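May I ask for a sample protein chain and its fold as tokens?
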Amino acid sequence: MGRPIKYSRELRERAFRMVAEVRSDYPSEYAAMTAVAQIVGIGSPETIRTWIRREQVDAGDRPGVRTDATVEIKRLKRDGAHRNSPELLIGIPQVAWSG
């Protein structure tokens, strides 16, 4: 898999507007995304579809995990993994439980 291409925020916004404007000219939303991808020079209509779906989730128009929640979950997982690293456990007294 190649390195992902970073598209500017302006290009994303332009693609959003264009899909909304030309949607009625095509039999499906995906067909409109395909046409817009070719016009603006984005390699795959799937890129635009992903942007639009993400924007819909973040706006609350579509079910899913919002971007800010995803970022927070990743941060919490990273912090949790760091806290459980073996380097931090060295020197901690072992507790013996007798039962």
In short: Helices lie at 9-22, 29-40, 45-59, 67-83, 86-89. The chain has a mean pLDDT of 84. The longest helix spans residues 67-83. The chain has five helices and no strands.
